[in-house]
Amino acid sequence: MNNTNICPKCGTSVNEIFETGFVGCQECYNLPEVQKVIDKMYAGKTHKE
After folding, report:
1. Count of C-beta atoms within a 10 Å radius of residue 18
2. Cα distance between residue 6 and residue 3, in whole Å
3. Exposed (0-12), middle (13-18) or buried (19+): which is 23, by Cβ within 10 Å?
4. Residue in 36, 39, 47 with CA at minimum distance from that of residue 14
5. What's residue 46's pLDDT?
6. Fewer CB within 10 Å: C terminus or N terminus of the chain?
7. Domain residue limits, the chain
């Protein structure tokens, strides 16, 4: 596993996030693999005003 798959702040791995469904801290959301999943989940969606 390379360093882009582990959060530099809390040490949570992408595998742990995907297995548990929980991030370790707010920085986990910036991991490239996590960001890809979030982008797919919210593609084309916007906040209601």
Report:
1. 11
2. 5
3. middle
4. 36
5. 81
6. C
7. 3-41
